[in-house]
Design brief:
The chain has five helices and six strands, in the order H-H-E-H-E-E-E-H-E-E-H. By secondary structure, it is of the alpha+beta class. A six-stranded mixed beta sheet has the order 1-6-5-4-3-2. Helix 4 links the parallel strand 4 and strand 5.
Length: 197
């Protein structure tokens, strides 16, 4: 992961800086224990999350994440899951008083498949990480694994992944366009009828 951050900074023309740190074992233990007691006290495992009818898969995942955050936050004793404002990674910060160094990505999935190659984007720009965090910066993924039973969604597992500098990652430089960019008129475009857009 460290190499991907270095490449990102180079591509952005940013100064090299530490964007990921090695986890301290005591910190992992403290977080793990806090989450373990929160999962137990909240009774989130085997609980059912109410999902709006006709929700898309992405919407189901988003609703599961909100539910998990509410349940976990109510019972976390040391840490709190907070919003991390602004576009891009991370969406959340795992924070405790005087300590805001953990970039947190919340995910939800209907199954954990070790062969699944769907991406979980950890960063595509360094700007938010640099603006919201100071070294040491730790990266954590919290995944809620659920199952669908008829029209109900039941949480089965809460998984924490403590991402290290040596964690294997896929690097993909993405190019995208928007309506705004397409209006730059630096290419040909056609509309039918002509006055449509």
């Amino acid at each position: 992961m460290q190499q991907s951050h270095n490449e990102l900074l180079k591509r952005e023309g940013s100064e090299q800086c530490a964007m990921i740190s090695v986890w301290n074992k005591n910190l992992i233990k403290e977080i793990s224990q806090d989450f373990e007691q929160s999962v137990a006290n909240s009774k989130i495992v085997d609980s059912f999350c109410k999902i709006r009818p006709n929700s898309s898969n992405q919407s189901v995942g988003n609703q599961m994440e909100v539910y998990a955050i509410e349940q976990l936050n109510e019972h976390l004793k040391i840490y709190q899951i907070e919003k991390c404002s602004g576009a891009g990674y991370p969406d959340r910060i795992l924070a405790k008083e005087g300590f805001r160094h953990i970039a947190l990505e919340m995910k939800a999935t209907s199954e954990w498949d070790s062969n699944n190659s769907n991406r979980c984007v950890l960063t595509s720009s360094s700007k938010k990480l640099q603006a919201k965090f100071t070294a040491p910066i730790y990266h954590l993924i919290c995944t809620t694994i659920y199952q669908r039973i008829d029209q109900q969604y039941q949480i089965k597992t809460v998984r924490l992944d403590f991402i290290e500098p040596q964690t294997s990652v896929s690097i993909r430089l993405e190019a995208s366009v928007s309506h705004k960019l397409l209006e730059n008129k630096d290419h040909e475009s056609k509309c039918f009828p002509d006055e449509a857009v």
